[in-house]
User: Fold these one by one.
Assistant:
Number 1:
Amino acid sequence: NAGVTQTPKFRVLKTGQSMTLLCAQDMNHEYMYWYRQDPGMGLRLIHYSVGEGTTAKGEVPDGYNVSRLKKQNFLLGLESAAPSQTSVYFCASKYGISNQPQHFGDGTRLSIL
Amino acid sequence: RKEVEQDPGPFNVPEGATVAFNCTYSNSASQSFFWYRQDCRKEPKLLMSVYSSGNEDGRFTAQLNRASQYISLLIRDSKLSDSATYLCVVNGAGGYNKLIFGAGTRLAVHP
């Protein structure tokens, strides 16, 4: 059972480069989320989606864009990477409106030099 | 005030000890409550949901006090494998769509 799969697992970028992180889930979940986690801080929500073709801003959306063209995939884009975006990025998904927990991918470690 | 607050710890306890973690939340309209476990450099994993009447799963007991906006997690007979960071999670404003994660409480169980 794959669950939530994130690619890549690790990446090093130079300031100003762009990249896309991919999240794929095979549980037919309606909701998907992108978080970042920094040392000593809780998970912070970047963007989320409540269904195919929809996206919404979370707590820290600046510098990121997202797309949900297919229900199973949620892409996170960095158009012009900055050192402040060095972090561990987690994707999560859950069933629709219900008292259900989120299921997480194993993370992407991103360093911006 | 943070939406979800936890004592960061670390809690250093011997094997077999009982340890309790507390968490407070600010949104009185919150309806969903969870405890997640996160091992070093790994993804958060659901430990247990927290129900209004309190619930138990083996050595783990979760309690919810809505009046005080307070959640607790009790671990009995601690094992070395319980060493991890425990995250208190509450749904935020706007319903079930978004969860707010506490920064976590670190537990270290030693022989």
Number 2:
Amino acid sequence: DVKVTQSSRYLVKRTGEKVFLECVQDMDHENMFWYRQDPGLGLRLIYFSYDVKMKEKGDIPEGYSVSREKKERFSLILESASTNQTSMYLCRGGYTFGSGTRLTVV
Amino acid sequence: LAKTTQPISMDSYEGQEVNITCSHNNIATNDYITWYQQFPSQGPRFIIQGYKTKVTNEVASLFIPADRKSSTLSLPRVSLSDTAVYYCLVGIYNQGGKLIFGQGTELSVKP
């Protein structure tokens, strides 16, 4: 079975901290995506990448950046975490999603 | 990207067949239709994908009419464990491509 692994299931960070969310896929897919999911707002696309070192903005990139140095790894970075970034973060590789990281910013 | 419209919620009983219809009037020639299932606090799970006519796998069937402006996900004989949110998406077939999720259909299966 193909696998997308997100490094943390639950994370609590303080306002202003730099936060790294890691995602690793074992399928050799070019395409990787980061979404956030909030009640009433559904899944919203933050950033995506079609290849190593390539990145494109999704619908809500403000406050986020990404890194794709290796094909299998796609990192989402919150440069200075804020409380409105408390959410469930979901990574997708190809057609497969990870289990999600529930981030709470206090 | 093509916008999709599907019912917000549906109710069913165990053992029934459930059909969820999605409309995508401005689907492009290169677009495929993909359905996902999501349980609470989990990532969405790929169910089925098709381009035209009918596709069937061990989980569901997908019916797509000739004009491709709509599609119907059919779940045979649902059980309580099929209670979930179902998302219909259209996008270019390219290892998933840039898929934009809509509101989804919240299916509730009752005993």
